[in-house]
Sequence to fold (316 residues):
Amino acid sequence: MSGIFFLLLLSSCTSLVLSAKHGDGAVLLKIKEQLGNPEALSSWAKGLDFCNGSGNIYPYTYIGCTSTGRVSYLGFASFPTSDVPFPNEICRLTELEVLFIDHVFGFNGPLPSCINKLVHLDTILIHRTSLSGHLPDFHNLNNLTYLEISQSGISGPIPPSLSSLPNLQTLDLHWNDLNGTIPPALVHLPTAALYLNDNSLSGELPRCYGEVNIRAIDVSTNRLTGDASFLFGKDKTFTYINLSKNQFTFDLSYIEIPENLTFLDISFNGIYGKVPDSLATARDSKLVSVDLKFNPLCGTEFAPPTCTNSAPAPAH
Ligand SMILES: *[C@@H]1O[C@H](CO)[C@@H](O)[C@H](O)[C@H]1NC(C)=O
Ligand SMILES: *[C@@H]1O[C@H](CO)[C@@H](O)[C@H](O)[C@H]1NC(C)=O
Ligand SMILES: *[C@@H]1O[C@H](CO)[C@@H](O)[C@H](O)[C@H]1NC(C)=O
Ligand SMILES: *[C@@H]1O[C@H](CO)[C@@H](O)[C@H](O)[C@H]1NC(C)=O
Ligand SMILES: *[C@@H]1O[C@H](CO)[C@@H](O)[C@H](O)[C@H]1NC(C)=O
Fold:
């Protein structure tokens, strides 16, 4: 993650200006207050020029500004704070484009819904926190391309309104306590990736994920059921499919492997039938890793006694 941090850091490092304008400096001091005036931020004081790097405390904080002196990038990494609610003063940084929070287990409680006011946001990356509660609505964030809230304690449903974000390339909500069903069309761009692994999601995967062209899907370690065979097909754009550790039940016998698929993991499910010819004979395939283990597939020790190599397995 720190790789991404510094990559973003470079790309949004904009021109040096005299000071954070429009009161953004005062907002940063309020944020410091909401964080309980931590020792690490002792140099954050009235009159400090936050936009020329003086507010950056390596490796804990990074602030980037627009050419007009507004805060456009706010990052907290491995930040030592006692237990505090998410500092909602952040919602007053109305020119914010990147919000980066990694490894800040002091952040508790829900992500405030006022985040939805930060319409210039391009990237939200919140990783390894103690945030809990439900996800707020992000429907105003039309410029959002990257949304990650992972390895935290977010619970409840995935808001269906997430599917209205027109520019979303990556939606990563892995390793939370999300439950309920997966809304349709959360991502729809050809280069998009969807990571919902390690939650408590249930129900069937909406069929539309076989109709949109996306690059990666990871729904492993949930409680999903039913068919997911619609993800497969020679002309599908997937390079990564992970369905591992669910209760999917479908016939694998006649699926076609997407031509650019490199990683396939369907282990620990109720997937039946035989290993498809398209896998057995995939000569010019790009596959690097295939994991079919712990499924009742014919020819494996997990196969039901009635399994034959020609007929689909008994209906579930
Ligand atoms: C930022 O500007 C202040 C004066 O406004 C100066 O004292 C300080 O050294 C500068 N800091 C950096 C990191 O350039
Ligand atoms: C969204 O992005 C477009 C293109 O980069 C830009 O012109 C527009 O101003 C942005 N809108 C907001 C609200 O930031
Ligand atoms: C999700 O979890 C909450 C709290 O544990 C529970 O009340 C709710 O019924 C669950 N919803 C579904 C659809 O499982
Ligand atoms: C798929 O997900 C499982 C469980 O989350 C993980 O253990 C496995 O490494 C993943 N497979 C691949 C190919 O990434
Ligand atoms: C597979 O990758 C090649 C080369 O990047 C690309 O031209 C082709 O369109 C891809 N095929 C699919 C089905 O995405």
Observations:
- The longest strand covers residues 98-109.
- The radius of gyration is 23 Å.
- DSSP finds three helices and 17 strands in the chain.
